[in-house]
Amino acid sequence: MARLTSEVRSVLDGSFPAVWVRGEISNLAQPASGHIYFTLKDEGAQIRCAMFRSKRVLLAFRPGNGQQVLVRARVTLYEARGDLQLAVDHMEPGGEGALRLAFERLKQRLAAEGLFDESLKRSLPPFPRQVGLVTSPTGAAVRDLLAVFRRRFAALPLLIYPAQVQGEAAPASLIAALALANARAECDLLILARGGGSLEDLAAFNDEGLARAIRASAIPVVSGVGHETDLTIADLAADRRAPTPSAAAELVAPSAEHLTQRVAALALRLSDAQRRRLTAERRRAEALARHLALLHPSARLQQQAQRLDHVQQRLTFLLSERVARGRARLHPLISALHAASPERRLSQIEMRLDILARRLAYAGERMLHVRGDRLGRLVAGLEARSPLATLARGYAIVTRSDDGRILRDATDAVPGTRIEVRLAEGVLTAVVEPGTGHAGSAGSSEASGRRSGRRPKSSDRGSGD
């Protein structure tokens, strides 16, 4: 007999998965061991049940005779008496248990369809233009939502789509409100909200049609239903779930204080960046100005003029020194002549001396004249080679504005090329235009400009160096 009952038990344990059974408790026994034993019956049958202490301590209510319950159990056999019984793992009151069972079944079916896949969830706009509230206009949830929005971002427009949130007509009312919000397309974010309640109170948010309407919505949906421990099908289908209506508002509404602080910080960073950029550009401009001053022709002319002054001073010194040496050699000769010359040759010597003195003076003057002429020719040649002298005679230096290359041929500047014309005083900026009768040729453009006597516009005039 023991072997038979053991074999039957092994067959039962391996053939039946966990089952959900609803019935009325009777013959409830609660021994000191902590286990409970009872009979679960309905109108057509009854079966013995055992719930062991490890499972009983998890019960959220105290079971009693005559109470309708829903249990999840394993079918087994009590070998000592050969009785068929249920080993109960979970038990809950019958009314809520039915809703819970229906919730689990719907949840599993919709999850199998992929309705809750994270890949379907859409991201929420960081700064919504207008938010729609799908809720009861008279409930506590809408007051909580408005209070949070007023505190965090009072300027955010809100639009309420009234709907029933409890009762048999609530699912259809919620679906209609979602459809209206999508049809009017006035908001870029919707909040589906309701305050807390029992599982029966939240039954409208466990409706399959509502879940499918949430997923079909073209506008992202945030759910804020019940309390933090409540979980509904609408929460699973929504693009983002908040534990409460207030939390949904916190999630959606940007913080005005945070935005103000961030804008102030960004403005400070922008100001600092502009200040650093201006400083760097000012230093760069100063360096370029110094470099330009070193390369300017006037600097070279100043150096040449200084060199010319130095040569002139040296020439004057050399001439003076040579005259001084000649006079130094003449004085001893005159003294010797006076000492050695007889009286009768005095006049001849004086005459000769006078002639030599005149010749010496003439030679000095001639030498000064020759050296002065040579110096004048050198100065004239230096001035003739100076770019500024050429510009002063009416000539100009024409360069391309983009690369600074000097233009020597009109064909190097096609129509539309921006050029700079350096005169003796100032710089002109101009644009090459097509020449009359020779369109498309840079040379003809320049010739046309000379024939027509075109004067540069005021916008083409540059500033002088």
Automatic annotation (TrEMBL):
Keywords: Coiled coil, Cytoplasm, Exonuclease, Hydrolase, Nuclease. GO terms for biological process: DNA catabolic process. One of its GO terms (cellular component) is exodeoxyribonuclease VII complex. Residues 3-92 form the OB-fold nucleic acid binding domain. Residues 256-321 form a coiled coil. CDD domains: ExoVII_LU_OBF. InterPro entries: Exonuc_VII_L, Exonuc_VII_lsu_C, OB-fold_nuc-bd_dom. It catalyses: Exonucleolytic cleavage in either 5'- to 3'- or 3'- to 5'-direction to yield nucleoside 5'-phosphates. Its EC number is 3.1.11.6. It is found in: Cytoplasm. GO terms for molecular function: exodeoxyribonuclease VII activity; nucleic acid binding. Transmembrane segments: none annotated. Residues 432-465 are annotated as: Disordered. Residues 115-430 form the Exonuclease VII large subunit C-terminal domain. Heterooligomer composed of large and small subunits. NCBIfam families: xseA. Belongs to the XseA family. PANTHER family: EXODEOXYRIBONUCLEASE 7 LARGE SUBUNIT (PTHR30008:SF0). Bidirectionally degrades single-stranded DNA into large acid-insoluble oligonucleotides, which are then degraded further into small acid-soluble oligonucleotides. This is Exodeoxyribonuclease 7 large subunit. It comes from Imhoffiella purpurea. The lineage of its organism: Bacteria, Pseudomonadati, Pseudomonadota, Gammaproteobacteria, Chromatiales. The gene is xseA.
